[in-house]
Amino acid sequence: MKPTPAQKTTPLVSPASAAVVRDAPTRLFIGGQWVSAKEDRTFEVVDPATGDVIATVSDGDIADGISAVDAAEKAAAAWKATSPRRRSDVLMKCFHLVLEQAEWLAQLITVENGKALADARSEVAYAAEFFRWYAEEAVRAPGEFGPAPSGANHIIVNHEPIGIAVLVTPWNFPAAMATRKMAPALAAGCTCILKPAAETPLTALAIGEIMRQAGVPAGVVNIVTTRKAGPVVSAMLHDKRVRKLSFTGSTGVGRTLLREAADQVVSCSMELGGNAPFVVFDDADLETAVAGAMVAKMRNGGEACTAANRFYVQKGILADFTRRFAEEMAVLNVGPGLAPDTQLGPLITEAAVAKVERLVDDAIAKGARLITGGSRLNGDGFYYLPTVLANVSPDAEILREEIFGPVAPVIAFETEDEVVQMANDTEYGLVSYVFSSDLKRALSVAGRLESGMVGINRGVVSDAAAPFGGMKQSGLGREGSHHGMLEYLETKYIAASW
């Protein structure tokens, strides 16, 4: 007899991977309960290191999404009325529980996402920090009071929870992107529905269980895993009870969701694609610049919207920088993320490898010189070697598309005006990097770059205390910092006389 989805067996996987996923929840989290999808459908989760199926997870549909909205509505009034101090205490408990289970969470991320375990550990620490930050911010909701200029009345400005929030997160940071959205939503007094990426649902579900253990009331957080993201999210956005959408993902999908949200005039926060320039001036410290390039390019294996995508190097330092950078890239250990010596794990899917392969082949066909890498690894899993390309043509696709892989195209420049023009020649504007020993020059260039964030002499900018977000086609709104909680608050003005 052909097995039903609920009866599917999991192919043999490594004992280590099997042990990691054994305790991970695999069903929907709605109204404080772990429930199967209404149609009892499931989908498979694959280990990118091997291509093996490691788990089957409930595949929710529109009815499940609306059930999650029902649960969020049922919990909304009580959570809104919960004191800021109590919300703060719950979020701080989430912070401590994540730290207590940090190693398991890191291994779970590695198994379903593929990233090296060191990267996964860093992500868990980053994810936990959003719980701590917004535990502290929950008691600091802003307000204003003062006399009107006319003297006829007083002006009172309050900030109230915006309402039920739908949160859509990507696969590349499955823990941090979830907590970066859920923590400020809860701090503000909102209830929410999280729709994690189908490639990495286990981490989100595990965090949901941690939040349940921390005392988050039933219905305040709901998690719907699904392979039918478009219809499910659309149905929730067209439910008049939903008042907020926060999305992290591609610009193309973001445009679609903005159109969907317009029908009910739903407030939107959109953290979209990037095409980050990495600018190195002649006067930069070479060692610092190369170290920064390795972090900006290879954090998360290059699968990050903040990853340096285009390396612009002034001609005086071009040869030395390219040589040193390529040497560092060439010696990275590539392998399964759980292996103790792995520095670069697999990409997320075979399609991701094919995209990187296409971009590299196009660049070489248009005259780029391959310095190191430039090929996938044979065998199981979705691997691509760390790659550096020189003499990249301005019309190469790799300079226009978000690479999302371990590939670094290097381009020469001569003047400050030239590099600013090249760096800004993109529809994206998320983050930029500038390396120079002249702080006045670095700050001047940072001011001219069309991006929401700039790193000066450092290859990472993300911080729970800093506003994360972009300009142009890279998004709307900010996450992290005090600004992140404001995204979940409505401003109410009261004119009062007495």
From TrEMBL:
Location of the active site: E271
**Transmembrane spans:** none
Biological process annotations from GO:
gamma-aminobutyric acid catabolic process
UniProt domain Aldehyde dehydrogenase: residue ranges = 34-494
UniProt keyword terms in alphabetical order: Oxidation, Oxidoreductase, Plasmid, Potassium
Q: Does the keyword Repeat apply?
A: no
Q: Which GO terms describe its molecular function?
A: succinate-semialdehyde dehydrogenase (NAD+) activity
Q: Which family does it belong to?
A: Belongs to the aldehyde dehydrogenase family.
Question: What is the protein name for this chain?
Answer: Succinate-semialdehyde dehydrogenase
State the organism named in the record: Sinorhizobium fredii (strain NBRC 101917 / NGR234)
